[in-house]
Write a structure and sequence with these properties.
It is a single chain. The strands form 4 sheets. Strands 5-4-1-6-7 form a 5-stranded mixed beta sheet, with helices on both faces. It has a 4-stranded antiparallel beta sheet with strand order 8-11-12-13, with helices on one face. It has a 3-stranded mixed beta sheet with strand order 9-10-14, with no helix packed on it. The radius of gyration is 35 Å and the shape is elongated. β9 and β10 (about 350-355) form a beta hairpin. It has helices at about 5-15, 20-25, 30-45, 50-55, 55-65, 80-85, 95-105, 110-125, 190-205, 225-240, 255-275, 280-300, 310-315, 405-415, 415-425, 430-440, 450-460, 465-475, 480-490, and strands spanning about 145-150, 155, 165, 170-175, 180-185, 210-215, 245, 330-335, 345, 350-355, 365, 370-375, 380-385, 395. The protein has 19 helices and 14 strands. The two termini are about 40 Å apart. By secondary structure, it is α+β, with helices and mostly antiparallel strands. Helices cover about 45% and strands about 10% of the residues. It comes from Hominisplanchenecus faecis. This is Transposase. It holds the Pfam family Mu-transpos_C_2.
């Protein structure tokens, strides 16, 4: 069973005309899985736009109903038979033909990806595996390869302590021209990695179809807590540059030999050159890196009469997409495994609200210098807040995020004496004087708020004239209290109006508290 992101992403890439292999590499799925997803997409007949609007779990259940989760017990093919046929003298048979032959004889047998996996295991167990090199015709402007230089030289001097610190050198190159970009960072953490990607794209002045990072912990991880952040980080990067992040297969460093070779090249021609000087800031160090890399890019290839820069201008750049408008803003990402019961997520000493229905669910907080964006586990935006730097208030709450009962109590607790005086003045002068005396009768005005609210809510159910008369009686006997008002209503036998009858108060007040949010 595949998750929502894999299902929607695979369909979108195929609809955009991406090759099957690209989709399989991007989402780490086999051709059988991809074919199954696309066949069920066409069978369902639901447009991709409608699928995006559906709940993720509903999409997953639509493509993988429970009845389809059971696997049949299928015996393994006779791999020795197929191995002998492939390696027979003069044979032109390959594994693809063997799978087609197997499926013809066993229609309910293993799909291609499973067949290939078990066949490779058979070879590794019985013949020690096989190592072959593949000749690759690279497509101009298609891929930008990304990696960190393995050597971490001590180049930066602390002016206060004299300590020499290590630096980490970020490097990218293109598939055809091999044009190099390099930059020094204090570490290899995610913010530096993303910033390096953005700077590299600006350096090239155009965007490739694919970004191919190494399987670094920065880029690809199996740690469940971090996977949520990394997935959303690269999704944001993809959306902004309209590209595809396509890591090579796990534990396959030769999946990107172009950048591996240039990492070794930079260790010799860049790092060795940098060690000849002393640097006191990253600005000085990166200025020197820029000069050295510019020389390397303009140096002619061995045995050729053109350089990396020449090849880039002639082959890669014309095939790359133009830069999007604006600059990519790197965010600080925070994964939340469960939204707390108070529906606020903490960041930098402040607490930002989300809709209360997200309590207990995973979420992703993205922080920029001016804004807080909160997304669900599928990287869909839930809400935004203006980032707060003030010491108070610590809780940044949007009223629409609160459950009805919380919002009602917030409204009640936000009232002051002037609020009740304005409310009473809408009924008449006697009621206005009654409420004013009641507010002044306590040592602290706040202690009278409940009594004021009780009287004014009582008034909403009786005629305005009767309310004024009862208020005058209370003033005459100098007993401006809720209990006296209630007893006077009973003594004068004042009849209540039908519920929700128009009239004793302005429309915005003429609602019962218990019905306030129905």
């Amino acid at each position: 069973m595949q998750d929502y992101n894999t299902i929607i992403g695979s369909i979108q890439m195929r609809l955009n005309g991406c090759q099957t292999r690209s989709v399989m590499d991007r989402y780490k799925i086999g051709s059988g899985t991809l074919n199954l997803i696309m066949s069920r997409y066409h069978a369902n007949g639901i447009p991709i736009e409608e699928l995006r609007m559906m709940a993720p779990k509903k999409v997953e259940n639509l493509f993988y109903p429970q009845k389809n989760l059971q696997r049949k017990d299928v015996p393994l093919p006779d791999f020795q038979y197929y191995y002998d046929r492939i390696h027979a003298p003069g044979s032109r048979m390959n594994i693809s033909f063997c799978w087609l032959d197997y499926k013809e004889k066993n229609p309910d047998g293993y799909e291609k990806s499973q067949f290939y996996e078990y066949f490779n295991r058979f070879i590794a167990e019985n013949y020690g595996g096989q190592k072959v090199s593949m000749a690759v015709n690279r497509i101009p402007g298609e891929k930008m390869y990304i990696d960190w230089v393995g050597d971490q030289p001590e180049l930066l001097t602390d002016t206060e302590t004299g300590e020499i610190k290590k630096v980490h050198i970020f490097a990218t190159t293109l598939g055809v021209s091999s044009l190099i970009y390099a930059e020094a960072f204090p570490n290899e953490k995610l913010p530096c990695f993303i910033e390096g990607c953005a700077h590299a794209v600006s350096f090239y002045g155009a965007v490739t179809k694919y970004f191919v990072p190494d399987n670094l912990r920065t880029a690809v991880t199996k740690h469940t807590k971090d996977e949520l952040i990394l997935q959303s980080t690269f999704a944001d990067l993809e959306d902004f540059y309209e590209t595809i992040v396509l890591p090579p297969p796990a534990r396959k460093p030769k999946g990107k030999p172009t950048v591996e070779n240039h990492v070794r090249y930079l260790e010799i021609h860049l790092v060795a050159k940098l060690k000849e000087k002393i640097y006191i800031s990253f600005e000085d160090l990166n200025a020197e890196i820029k000069k050295i890399v510019a020389v390397l890019n303009k140096r002619s290839f061995q045995g050729k009469d053109f350089s990396r820069q020449d090849a880039f201008e002639k082959y890669d750049k014309p095939c790359m997409k133009p830069l999007p408008g604006g600059c990519y803003t790197a965010c600080d990402y925070k994964a939340v495994l469960k939204v707390p019961n108070n529906y606020h997520i903490e960041y930098d000493g402040h607490y930002y609200s989300v809709l209360y229905s997200y309590c207990g669910k995973p979420a992703i907080l993205k922080a920029t210098a001016s804004e807080i964006r909160i997304c669900d586990q599928y990287n869909r935006l839930i809400c935004t807040h203006k980032r707060s730097y003030r010491e108070s208030p610590l809780y940044i709450t949007v009223d629409e995020h609160m459950p009805p009962e919380h919002l009602y109590y917030k409204e009640v607790n936000s009232k002051d004496g002037n609020y009740y005086r304005r409310w009473a003045s809408a009924i008449g002068p006697a009621m206005s004087e009654l409420i004013d005396r009641l507010l002044k009768s306590s040592k602290h005005e706040e202690q009278s708020y409940n009594a004021c609210a009780g009287i004014l809510h009582k008034v909403k159910t009786i005629p305005k004239g009767a309310a004024e008369e009862v208020a005058r009686k209370c003033i005459e006997i100098n007993s401006c209290k809720y209990f006296t008002f209630k007893q006077m209503l009973k003594k004068m036998d004042v009849k209540e109006l039908p519920e929700h009858s128009p009239g004793t108060l302005p429309n915005h007040e003429n609602i019962r508290g218990k019905d306030y949010y129905k």
